[in-house]
Write the structure tokens for this entry.
Amino acid sequence: MQRRDFFKKIGSVTAVAAVMPVMSFAADAKPVSPNKMSYETALNAITNGKTPKKSNKVSLKVPEIAENGAVVPVTVNVESPMTENDYVKSIHVLNTKNGNSRCIDVNLTPANGKAMFSTRIKLGGTQDVVAVVELSNGEFLIASQNVKVTIGGCG
Amino acid sequence: MAERKSLIKIKPKRYKDGEIVKVSFMVMHPMDTGMGKDKKTKEIIPAKYINSVKFVYNGKEITNMTVWESLSVNPVFTTYMKINGKGNLTITYTDNTGEVHETTKKIKPKG
């Protein structure tokens, strides 16, 4: 019996030793984004389960090759009369691979006169940039484009 | 002179009543995601990013934006706006740390 106990103790010690380095490695790993959200959940939260349509009315202007992922200019232009009955309610800019998939949600009103929005976003690597547009009649339109991020040269 | 934190630009500079103009709002803001590390001290920089931006023109809210941390450092927000008489355009941004900043520009249509 004594011999068995001895082996049991040895076993538990090695088990702890095996776990320890894993834990220390986990602490060194990249911190998780504070509001992490995958692309699918973000799209679901915006459209409430509806499937957005691809449309020519939405033009998304993003460079195909971005030299620096920290500054990627994005312009979303939507063809719309912007009257009280027919206007663009909101423009959402999403990405597919960043920690948090949502970049910005813009709520517009007819007082804007023109449905256009532009800003600069950060991209953590080669991925798609997606623009989701909500119209005043509840329809959703979508446009997307792939962006190659070539930081570090030799892209 | 105090450091300039934000700026409103209107294009074109001279505009008439009823014209649709381009409005750019530029902010000096670090937009830290809470994931980056300080290169010298190797410590994680706490998250500090803009939460929301509001455009108010003559007391009426034109545009409001919900912002997440994936925007670039010193972000720019550009939209269009219809000029509707004399007044003030006030743009407010709120930070996730509770910082609120307000900028006002006078709107004076000519002709």
Remarks:
- The interface with chain A takes residues 20, 31, 33-35, 44, 47, 57, 60-73, 75-82, 84 of chain B (CB under 8 Å).
